[in-house]
Amino acid sequence: MQSAQLDFEKELAKKDQEHRVETETLVLQNERLVSCLLASKQKQTHNTKVKNIEEAEREREESMNVVHPLEGNIEIIQKENKELTEKLNGLTTIIEELRTELSTAKLGFERELTKKDDDILHLQQESER
Known about the structure:
This protein is mainly α.
């Protein structure tokens, strides 16, 4: 009976050792799975951040594409404004020249009128004599 008890205890110790090895193996596998899960979660988080950054960059580029046509319009308007300003300056110069000519003509006309008035006055004085 002692031999059966010893055999039973040996078998029990052997089974206990097998369970311990199996438990340690399961613990190691569990640790590896947790590690893989964490790495997967970090990778997913990283990918989400990259995707968000790429989407923000794409949206920024799209908004820049909307701004570029406006900048083109502004450049066209500035060019037209410059051309119109040059034309206006040219017209202003012409107007100034016409004013000068008009003033000169007016002075000449006034001199002629004065001369004719003097002539008329002189003729009147002569006719009165």
